[in-house]
Write a structure and sequence with these properties.
Length: 115
């Protein structure tokens, strides 16, 4: 089981920005796909963004143009830069570390967007 730790959540006003970080305790970090997911109260966990080992990225339509996923293999960390935040972005954000069909999850970090 991979140890995963998210950080960087918090409370911001609409239009604000946050950067989430996800550190994974693995040997071959560069071989893993890193994904961000979120779960709002009463909703199922949903996909937000993903970056593959080769650097290819994919986003859910609702965050395209506002969120950017990236990774630093030397630091074994993935990031989610979130700009132009909206109240509907409020959720617990989870990092998923994926390889060979298996995903390890962190505990999540709360993001609250409210005026």
């Amino acid at each position: 089981q991979v140890q995963v730790a998210e950080s960087g959540g918090g409370s911001v006003q609409p239009g604000g920005s946050l950067r989430l970080s996800c550190a994974a305790a693995v040997t071959m970090f560069s071989a893993y796909t890193m994904g961000w997911y979120r779960q709002a109260p009463g909703n199922q966990r949903e996909f937000v963004a993903r970056i593959t080992s080769g650097g290819s990225t994919r986003y859910v339509d609702s965050v395209k143009g506002r969120f950017t996923i990236s990774r630093d293999n030397t630091k074994k960390t993935a990031y989610l830069q979130m700009n132009s935040l909206k109240p509907e972005d409020t959720a617990v954000y989870y990092c998923g570390v994926e390889r060979w069909g298996t995903t390890s999850w962190g505990q999540g970090t709360q993001v609250t967007v409210s005026s």
